[in-house]
Amino acid sequence: MLSERRVGDGLPPVWPADRYEVICERGESFGSTRDRYHYAKYAMESARALEKAGLARRVLVIRMADDTVIYDRAQGIELPPEEW
Predict the structure, then answer these.
(1) Which strand (E) or helix (H) includes residue 41?
(2) Which of 6, 22, 24, 38 is most buried, judged by most C-beta within 10 A?
(3) Handedness of CA 27, 81, 35, 52 (dihedral sign)
(4) Where are the extended beta strands (E) located within the chain?
């Protein structure tokens, strides 16, 4: 990923660090995908859009700092925004 590339010039990364991961399980024949976001708002929007479009059988949003699941409709988890 672009945000994970390292440049040997000593400069800090241009992009902010990824803090949230959206895991999309599409089924056995299609596997799963993982996308990372810096902002929880965009991770949640992505997860809901994937579900609404019917492109996944399960979608999770995980806060990477502590591996907390903040969204998983299949398990009935949807933390309020102040806990993201």
Answers:
(1) helix 40-52
(2) 22
(3) positive
(4) 20-25, 32-37, 58-63, 68-72, 77-78
Over residues 46-65, mean pLDDT:
93
What per-residue confidence (pLDDT) applies to 1? 44
What pLDDT sits at residue 2?
46
Report the C-alpha gap between 74 and 57 in whole angstroms. 9
Query: Which burial class, exposed, middle or buried, applies to 51 when counting CB atoms under 10 A from its CB (0-12, 13-18, 19+)?
Result: middle
Among candidate residues 42, 17, 25, the one with its CA nearest the CA of residue 34: 25
